[in-house]
């Protein structure tokens, strides 16, 4: 499927996206999913996630503000997604920062995500590479993470998406680079978390590799448009949601900014 077909399908089907994300991201991630045309639900109680996953089109798990009850819910949700044949997307926020985060992420990877989406430092650290990242923000370039992304995709049999100035997506065999967006984007918290939620929505209606590329192309185009009017990070966030809601499938038909490798 092409990016314009994927966006058109999302907007017609309006898939329900089950998001387990962090306290920082919950509001903007839900608004991003809605602006693109899908339907978010932030559901993280351990007693209900396994019942919610089967009614959703896809699941996303972000470990940003984890704690034991949340981790248990993430594990149950991931297992339910696998059992129901629903794709799920993992966002390994700052997993290298503490042993607890690292152990949780390794456990979740073992539960079969369809896509792992992280910034360059997060993806490099998943392959044991030294990184300059300290917390949730990346300290490394995407170019330096490409080899790790390919190795990770091959080892886990999943799609890996690395974000930064120019994004990189790979399934271990095919790869793509996506350019666009603006340097204002990393100045707004939870843009990456929101992207992960949107990627889940697109993975509900398209194969994982194409869905990941489509999510990045959509973010790049919305970022380009918002940068034309924004005066800084505050107004950019508002302009970004407006732009995302105004992008039509045909606006992405030329695949501008996507380099298929
Ligand atoms: N310098 C940049 N120029 C253009 N776009 C960028 C730049 N940095 C990040 N982006 C875009 O911002 C979005 C979020 O990517 P980023 O790598 O900042 O995620 P992240 O570090 O996981 O964010 P967070 O943890 O705050 O949610 C992606 O769409 C990415 O393409
Ligand atoms: C700032 C922050 N802290 C934990 S999660 C999060 C959102 C960006 O990843
Ligand atoms: Mg992040």
Automatic annotation (TrEMBL):
ATP binds at residues 117, 163. One of its GO terms (molecular function) is magnesium ion binding. It comes from the Bacteria. InterPro entries: Hyethyz_kinase, Ribokinase-like. Keywords: ATP-binding, Kinase, Magnesium, Metal-binding, Nucleotide-binding, Thiamine biosynthesis, Transferase. Pfam families: HK (PF02110). Pathway: Cofactor biosynthesis; thiamine diphosphate biosynthesis; 4-methyl-5-(2-phosphoethyl)-thiazole from 5-(2-hydroxyethyl)-4-methylthiazole: step 1/1. Its cofactor is Mg(2+). Substrate binds at residues 42, 190. It catalyses: 5-(2-hydroxyethyl)-4-methylthiazole + ATP = 4-methyl-5-(2-phosphooxyethyl)-thiazole + ADP + H(+). Its EC number is 2.7.1.50. GO terms for biological process: thiamine biosynthetic process; thiamine diphosphate biosynthetic process. NCBIfam families: PRK09355.1, thiM. Belongs to the Thz kinase family. Catalyzes the phosphorylation of the hydroxyl group of 4-methyl-5-beta-hydroxyethylthiazole (THZ). This is Hydroxyethylthiazole kinase. It comes from Hoeflea halophila. The gene is thiM.
């Amino acid at each position: 499927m092409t990016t314009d077909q994927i966006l058109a399908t999302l907007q017609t089907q309006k898939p329900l996206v089950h998001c387990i994300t962090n306290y920082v991201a919950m509001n903007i991630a839900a608004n991003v999913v809605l602006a693109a045309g899908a339907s978010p639900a932030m559901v993280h109680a351990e007693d209900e996630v396994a019942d919610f996953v089967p009614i959703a089109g896809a699941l996303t798990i972000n470990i940003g503000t984890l704690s034991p009850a949340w981790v248990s819910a993430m594990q149950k949700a991931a297992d339910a997604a696998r059992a129901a044949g629903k794709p799920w997307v993992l966002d390994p926020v700052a997993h290298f920062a503490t042993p607890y985060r690292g152990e949780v992420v390794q456990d979740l990877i073992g539960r079969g995500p369809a896509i792992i989406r992280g910034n360059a430092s997060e993806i490099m650290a998943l392959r044991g590479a030294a990184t300059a990242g300290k917390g949730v923000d990346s300290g490394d370039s995407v170019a330096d993470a490409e080899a790790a992304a390919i190795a990770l995709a091959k080892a886990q049999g999943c799609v890996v998406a690395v974000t930064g100035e120019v994004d990189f997506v790979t399934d271990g065999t095919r790869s793509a680079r996506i350019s666009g967006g603006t340097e204002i984007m990393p100045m707004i918290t939870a843009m990456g978390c929101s992207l992960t939620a949107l990627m889940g929505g697109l993975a509900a209606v398209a194969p994982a590799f194409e869905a990941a590329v489509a999510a990045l192309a959509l973010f790049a185009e919305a970022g380009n448009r918002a940068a034309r009017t924004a005066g800084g990070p505050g107004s950019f966030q508002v302009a970004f949601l407006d732009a995302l809601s105004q992008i039509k499938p045909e606006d992405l038909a030329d695949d501008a900014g996507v380099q298929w490798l």
